[in-house]
Amino acid sequence: MSRQNTAAGTGDSGDELLARYSDSLLGVFGTPQRVLVRGSGATVWDADGREYLDLLGGIAVNALGHAHPLITSAVSSQLSTLGHISNFFTSPPQIALAEKLLTLAQAPSGSKVFFTNSGTEANEAAFKLARRHGGTSRSRIIALENGFHGRTMGALAMTHKPSYREPFEPLPQGVEWVPAGDAAALRAAVDETVAAVIIEPIQGEAGVHGHPDGYLEQAREITRAAGALLIFDEVQSGIGRTGAWFASAPAETDAVIPDAMTLAKGLGGGFPIGAMLTFGEHASSLLSPGQHGTTFGGNPAATAAALATLDAIEAGDLLSQVRRVSAHAQQELEELDFVAEVRAHGLLIGIDIAPSLSGAPGEAPSAGGPSAAPAPAMVAAALEAGFIINATGPHTLRLAPPLITTIEQIQRFIDALPEIH
Ligand code: PLP
After folding, report:
1. Which of 103, 165, 181, 310 is buried deepest, with most CB atoms within 10 A?
2. How do residues 62-87 score in pLDDT, each as one tens digit?
3. Gap from CA of 240 to ligand 1 centroid (Å)
4. pTM confidence score
């Protein structure tokens, strides 16, 4: 097997590269079906020259699509000026990004930002924040059923899915789950023994589920009354994805201000960066300097990419474009007879596929038959048809395309869906 340093797409075929991949990488999700070599806007190409409409955006990451000139020029100009410096130092883009994020999040005075390299790391920081707030008297952390917060030990301790957790137990203790969107259950669980409540305002990995109107406000009121921190995990739902800067601050509604918010994914426009925002003096004072840190967090190139991303979202009025494309997708997808439910929260879209009956109407689909898990089969068929999407469960597709995706592009996918199904 050749291991020479051939640049992807310049010599080897897709199959040859895939063989080298599976020989050399510890692939978390198994062998991918395509080797991608180039992207522009919402389009990507594989090593064999096939073209795809990227409706997954690197899992809700590529806010501006691929190879956006503002990001590439911001990063290249930053790297040619000052690259890595470590967290013993700071740099202008890091400071400007922190200020910008606090403004966008309507953070009160005394609020601060801690930069990380991923969403998981931001949630690790939030976990430590909760422990510092709880001390020895508040040992419980409340999270939501079906919630996802990452796969390192602290983040995993708050993630609900048993199949993710069980191989790694014992995890950090003290986390309990309540049903998502159920304010009465939250109220019953939260008392003065709770350090923090962590909520995804939209549960992305669970299949794109929002909460009933007023739930986040009630969570704010319940946690405040009990003296617990409220943490919003906006890693997937933040930075314009829902057509607002944050899902906890929807357009035309007052923002619900938490004690901490975690961000990543779309923030860097494709660069690895995450952040934990702490709101107000108390939350910001919990972690003393040196109690948490990371060598790469907030590095100049990643923060320059993030600043360029936020500027481009603003300059292009992308939040209103996201809302328009989302409303179109919701309406058109609902028309399809094999679609059971559509949950379009901006350009984070969950699509439940109705079970297609192989027997007579009214009969359950045969176990293990082709209709038992339509969504993963549709992901593979979509790829063949030139669309990148994914499945969050056997019956649920998820779209999280770049925020620059147009109505024409999303319609192209909707027109192809009957054939893909
Ligand atoms: N939190 C949420 C809500 C997520 O959706 C994810 C990733 O899907 C994470 C945390 C983990 O982020 P990362 O993959 O950047 O570590």
Report:
1. 310
2. 999 999 999 999 999 999 999 999 98
3. 16
4. 0.94
